[in-house]
Design brief:
globular, mainly beta, seven-stranded mixed β-sheet
């Protein structure tokens, strides 16, 4: 069993930066792929980025490529999402997800989810 808790969200102006953290409980987290998804009001949950268990492979949605960076520190059971050059269209609730399968862009492939954290980018 893995429990995930996101932190670091908030309100930022367009062009600014935020770093989200996803802290996990559970001894096996270091063997889990982790993804970040987001959901804006009235929209479906969408893939943002994912990382494999070791951090050697990362994947990004085209909309965030070059602006967002995912990383992990398995010694701290934490995955990070550094978000730079934020845009108003990045406004959403961001969710961390984990699974012991390879990284996927599909939410249904992840068994464990955090509660979500709000990110608001003002213009």
């Amino acid at each position: 069993q893995v429990q995930l808790v996101e932190s670091g969200g908030g309100l930022v102006q367009a062009g600014g930066s935020l770093r989200l953290s996803c802290a996990a409980s559970g001894r096996t987290f270091s063997s889990y792929a982790t993804g970040w998804f987001r959901q804006a009001p009235g929209k479906e949950r969408e893939f943002v980025t994912a990382i494999n268990w070791s951090g050697s492979s990362t994947y990004y949605a085209n909309s965030v490529k070059g602006r967002f960076t995912i990383s992990r520190d398995n010694a701290k059971n934490t995955v990070y999402l550094q978000m730079n050059s934020l845009k108003p269209e990045d406004t959403a609730v961001y969710y961390c997800a984990a699974d012991d399968s390879p990284p996927s862009t599909q939410p249904s492939r992840y068994d464990y989810w955090g509660q979500g954290i709000q990110v608001t980018v003002s213009s």
